[in-house]
RNA sequence: UAAGACGGCCGGACAGCCGCGCCAUGGCUUUGACCAUGGUGAGGAAAGUCCGGGCAUCAGGGGAACAAGGCACCGGAUAACGUCCGGCUGGGGCAACCCAAGGGAAAGUGCCACAGAAAAUAACCGCCCGUCUAAACGGCAGGUAAGGUUGAAAAGGCGAGGUAAGAGCUCACCGCGGUGGUGGCAACAUCAUCGGUCAAGGUAAACCCUGCCUGAUGCAAGACCAAGUUAGGGGCAUCAAGGUGUAUUUUUUUUAAGAUACAAACCGGAUGACAUAAGGCGUUCUCCCCUUACUCCAGAGGUGGGUCGCAUUGAGCUUCGAUAGCAAUAUCAAGCCAAGAUGAAUGGCUGUCGGUUUGAGCUUGCUCAAAUUACAGAACCCGGCUUAUAGGCUGUCUUAUUUG
RNA sequence: GGAGAGGUGGCAGAGCGGUUUAAUGCAGCGGUCUUGAAAACCGUCGUGGGCGCGAGCCCACCCAGAGUUCGAAUCUCUGCCUCUCCG
């Protein structure tokens, strides 16, 4: 599974519409990509709001999320899904192993939601 | 040894594994949001955007007046500055040293609440003389600014003389001002001499006056490339002389048709060359010079782009090198080349050694354990200022105490 | 990244350097009216500290900290926060 990074505002807005899971350390949003994907690829974007602190704090938050995602996403990511990770106030202070575990929980949870929804959609289309 | 004053510097180090941006080279049997190798990769404040520049666009430049804004003891440094250095004056500190938007209130205007007699040519109480009366502490007419309460502030201070009572009315000293000498580039200091209504408070971070400085907009400036959309209308000038109009004339019985000339009202056309005109960036005027696809009003598209600007040569940085200077700094010499992203690159984990704090142990400066290791992230680039900052290193000086 | 505007009780929002500003409105609380409510009318109403048995009185606070002034919500400087604009 390859991981590509989201850079455009449009992608972030799209991801925010559908699914959302909150765990200690990170808020995860996700959506199925609209354009057809042939390869084994998922997309990830990182965000930190101004509420968290000054510039160096926000940068650090995104770096930690990036480091954690590098371990988790290649295994847990689903094909053709856009994930967006939003940093929280304690993202910088948490133990890294704990943060990784929590992120994995969030991803598996959100994948489950997507599968349920998609199953229904397919059923309706068949009818 | 203790307390303090003023500078200068540092802002953890090393190793391993997994990753990131940019650049160079190479690879390809997926020419890629690819792979490999090598190089390189945040700060003293990168911050605030408070000043000063470079650079870019408004075509370029000179002059005058006004407006707006800024600066303000004196001299120097600098590309420039509101910065820096040296000095002066005033204030604070035993001292080292520190602080000051520090020009003008005898150019003018405004404001000074409450209180108080009075907030600026005054006179409430008081003091004193004269006079009315038998007399007065009462009335009248004066003199006076010593004393009074108030207030942030009451038209020099203090002492003596003087006087009816008083008053720079007179005098000494201090203070203030003018003139002259001396020292200094100057601010200013100092000495001499003259001045008594020497002078009429405060406020200019109130208006203002004086002197000096400033064109506007900021890299989202701006240049180029690619793709795509759109609807025109009004006004001005010139040209031609089309239609219309008027006049003359030819043919003709007339209608009518043709030709020539004129006009510029209407309709339509072309052009925006010269000239004129307009514009040229705070306003007005002016001198060059320049521009004009005339000028004004509408309308459509656009927040999916890309490349350059942009990052090795500059007001460049470093030097406990030299020379000049008290210094800021300048000149010369030597050395150095040092991030370039654009949802934005430096992270995660581990180990060792440091620093700090706390606790324990004793060999009293070591060992062990735990915690902690600031402020903070380049976005066109420089020079400053301001603000944030764990902890540490280092130099010079002052005061006090002790010892020699 | 750059360029501006603002910050006053719980909320909105006035405020010439001066007696006591905290105007005014909304909200809140109490009352009148009503069977009850709304509307209307009347009164009251910021926070913190100190003193007082109590009624009440005094001091400080207009985002924060300095400065100018006899005296700052107001004038000047520095910082913090909020909002707007740029192609």
Strand content: 15-25%
Mean pLDDT over the full residue set: 79
DSSP summary: helix tally: 3
Structurally, the number of domains stands at 1
Order of helices and strands: EHEEEHEH
The N- and C-terminal alpha carbons lie at a distance of: 33 Å
Shape: globular
- Provide the CATH topology: Ribosomal Protein S5, domain 2
CATH-scheme architecture:
2-Layer Sandwich
User: What is the CATH first-level class name?
Assistant: Alpha Beta
Strand order of the largest sheet: 1-4-5-3-2
Low-confidence stretches: 122-127
**Rg (C-alpha, Å):** 15 Å
* Percentage of residues in helical conformation: 40-55%
- Structural class by helix and strand composition: alpha/beta
Oligomer: single chain
Biggest beta-sheet profile: 5 strands, mixed
Q: Compute the number of strand runs.
A: 5
In words, what does this structure look like?
Helix 2 (55-76) packs across helix 3 (96-126). The protein is an alpha/beta fold. It has a single domain, classed as 2-Layer Sandwich (Ribosomal Protein S5, domain 2), CATH 3.30.230.10. Strands 1-4-5-3-2 form a five-stranded mixed beta sheet, with helices on both faces. Strand 4, helix 2 (55-76) and strand 5 form a beta-alpha-beta unit. It contains three helices and five strands; from the N terminus they run E-H-E-E-E-H-E-H. Residues 122-127 have low confidence and may be disordered. The structure holds two RNA strands.
Highlighted features:
127 residues; alpha/beta; Ribosomal Protein S5, domain 2; 5-stranded mixed sheet; 3 helices; 24% strand; disordered C terminus; RNA-binding
